[in-house]
Amino acid sequence: MSTRKxxxxxxxxxxxxxxxxxxxxxxxxNLLRKLNVITAGDLLYHIPHRYEDASTVAPIATxxxxxxxxxxxxxxxxxxxxxxxxxxxxxxxxxxxxxLIEVSWPGQPYLDRSIQKDxxxxxxxxxxxxxxxxxxxREFINLGSEETGDMRGRVLSVYPATEGLSAKVIRGxxxxxxxxxxxxxxxxxxxxxxxxxxxxGIRDALRMVHRPASLAEAMQGRSRLAFEELFxxxxxxxxxxxxxxxxxxGISFTNRRTLTTxxxxxxxxxxxxxxxxxxxxxxxxxxxxxxxxxxxQGDVGSGKTIVALFAALLAIENGYQAAIMVPTELxxxxxxxxxxxxxxxxxxxxxLLTGSLPAKERRRIAALLAAGEPTLVIGTHALVQQATAFAxxxxxxxxxxxxxxxxxxxxxxxxxxxxxxxLMTATPIPRSLALTLYGDLDLSLIDERxxxxxPITTGMxxxxxxxxxxxxxxxxxxxxxxxxxxxxxxxxxxxxxxKAATTMFELLSTGxxxxxHVALLHxxxxxxxxxxxxxxxxxxxxxxxxxTTVIEVGIDVPNASVMLIEHPERxxxxxxxxxxxxxxxxxxxxxxxxxxxxxxxxxERLKIFCDTEDxxxxxRADLQMRGMGDLFGERQSGVPxxxxxxxxxxxxxxxxxxxxxxxxxxxxxxxxxAAHAGLRRVIGERYARSMELFxxx
Length: 697
Ligand code: ADP
Ligand code: MG
Description:
Elements: H1 26-34, H2 40-44, E1 50-53, E2 68-82, E3 88-95, E4 100-106, H3 111-114, E5 120-129, E6 133-144, E7 155-158, H4 167-181, H5 191-197, H6 202-210, H7 215-247, H8 260-266, H9 273-287, E8 293-298, H10 304-317, E9 321-325, H11 329-343, E10 351-353, H12 359-370, E11 376-379, E12 393-398, H13 406-413, E13 420-425, H14 431-437, E14 442-446, E15 457-461, H15 466-478, E16 482-486, H16 501-512, E17 518-521, H17 527-538, E18 544-547, E19 560-566, H18 573-580, E20 591-595, H19 600-611, H20 615-626, H21 629-632, H22 634-637, H23 651-667, H24 677-686
Parallel strand pairs: 4-6, 8-13, 8-14, 9-11, 9-12, 10-11, 12-13, 15-20, 16-18, 16-19, 17-18, 19-20
Antiparallel strand pairs: 1-7, 2-3, 2-5, 3-4, 5-6
Helix pairs in contact: 6-7, 7-23, 9-10
Bound molecules: adenosine-5'-diphosphate (ADP) and magnesium ion (MG).
């Protein structure tokens, strides 16, 4: 590692472009830009995503197939191998004092240019058996050829890298300039915030994360950076929320009980305690003069629909119109069907509004809505289309809210005069996390399921049991039940050996279930055909439905008793949970079977899923293992991305950050005090678009 002293440039600022730094020319600057590093300040905040220290390194001889390992060894041979499928694999053989191991990088032939014979590599990954032991790298660092391989007492920072610019080069650049850039950073958190959080100041923290003396120190530095991310997000959320409170005037409904109470009395079941509590929260919002903006969370099958219906009735008994938007036509039909039955005694007929209605019917409904008739409308995104004008929309529920884009949700909420809005989601996330992610929403939680549900028997079966598993499904079908068989991909591809829905559909319909009705469902089938297939499945005309995850959304087929999932390791636990929620809806015992040979690591993960039906526990485990991106559809929900913080793992830090943000805003809502100039500056730099939340100082 380079320890050469550099003469500091004349004047260095955080916004000095990296090209002015020694060792960074145009070429590297262009590569750094791919990592969003443009200035000296960006470089300073380019934080290691991982550390390696001597305690994690194992002698090569001790690695066993199936385990995760980290080794350090010298490259004694290397080369690029072509494979049958046209994929090129870079391979190297590493040696340490204890032995040899082959390391294989499929699809990365370019590594042949950056890794040389005699280089010392630190590699971590899964050890598997393939003509001998082979290491499949998850990550690696090239320590260069001078490295002795003696790592004792060393903590190595591993940086996010990009093709052509290795973590090693980045570490070199940062190491070289750290001491000159650090003094330019000024603390922006106030002393009391820092003290309350129990985290180091910014200069110390940055030194600790880049050049830690120990792993513990690296974590201490990281905690500061995580804290400030959470702190700023809370600050902006809370500010947005209090501004919204000031301006968010809405309709004040009156709880007349002319419809809600009769419905409650005529329901074939008692509401659960959780349904009653969330309804109380929703009614309080709707009866206040503030506009409701509430997220209703509840696991699959927890009974969110009926809660939305009560809220809709409150609007209707006040002479307003209510709309419930769902992601598919089939769901809309299903809701209309059940609600028509429930509401018939009160002379209310819910109206279905979808894109496939005949134009004449659509015009009829449009006229009805324009006339301001108090009506309950259930529909798809056709609801938001311009042509549908509600004269008196007072309440909007958006089911499976993550299925809609931000724009669609906004468009529906913008109809009428400030309707109250209820978003519904089956992704149960811990409250503290939800507050961090969706700070500007109020939250209601259904944390209890309707009584009397049969547990679903869930299990993993190996490839060798395939024939038995399908025989079991055949037996279920023979008893009159129906089954889902789910695959991760639609079509087979060169790059993977994944079983795919289309090819397996052929095989299943001819090979395993020759006398049965087997249907295929996936995302490339047009939406109306898809709905048609689901309809036939619902009506019992299809016995086995071969599908991709398109069936995830809340469809209700009580007669389906088996959910078979192939390549279960390809799905997130929450996704598996959603899939499993498609069965166990009727009186019959239901089964969820995960089929395939998975790695021991994946097996561990899947075991969590097999052992519990608690959506919260599953979501939490999923978050811990997969990160949050896929779970929340980050890009479309507008949730800020965290670079260092992990709102779930850093739950306690997030709580401290929330409290600190609250204290600051309580004393200085506009952040105009001189002591808060640093905060203003950082908000301006990092969250420029949120700056409008604060008046100009
Ligand atoms: P989700 O929260 O997944 O949308 P649903 O609203 O579809 O769940 O409800 C699932 C099923 O539970 C429906 O068949 C519904 O009629 C039933 N249900 C809802 N609430 C209760 C209750 N309190 N007691 C018994 N069954 C209920
Ligand atoms: Mg639902």
